[in-house]
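Progress report, Aim 2. The chain analyzed during this reporting quarter is listed below.
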Amino acid sequence: MSETLSCLFLLALSLNPQTVREREVSTSTNNKLTETLVALKDPGAPRAFLSQQLGDEMMALAEKDHQPPRPLVMAFTDELTGALLGRKLNKDQITSVQQAIGEIMRRNESSNLEPASRLRETLAAIGVGSEKVQLVLKDLIAVGEAVRGIDDCNVRACGQ
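Predicted structure tokens for the chain:
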């Protein structure tokens, strides 16, 4: 029975295209991403440093052959850290921002609209002004298009 379970476990691992190492890196990066987002709650936190750290974490989430240009990622992290710095995000809001970032950095068949909508709702819920939300979403979508390609979502449709 034990051998059968071991074989099934190994079979399941082999069917998953993501290696154990990739899952460990992804989990580690997600944990770091969460720590960075939590650090942004402090209004005195070093914005430039956290923006850089967030950019590094985002780049680590992207597949090696589908990484967006670093300047696009940094433009997004600059806008996002400016929007979040000093805001008291709760655990669900942090998770929502983290999921939006994770989705946008993965190359899959879904639209950029879903992560952009999730981020828009979260930013609005914590009181970020609509002009700032538009800037953040524009940069998020640019990153998504660099990773996934252009889809039918434009800034106006995603930002409203």
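Confidence is low (pLDDT under 50) at residues 5-25. The two ends are 56 Å apart (CA to CA). These observations will guide the mutagenesis work planned for the next reporting period.
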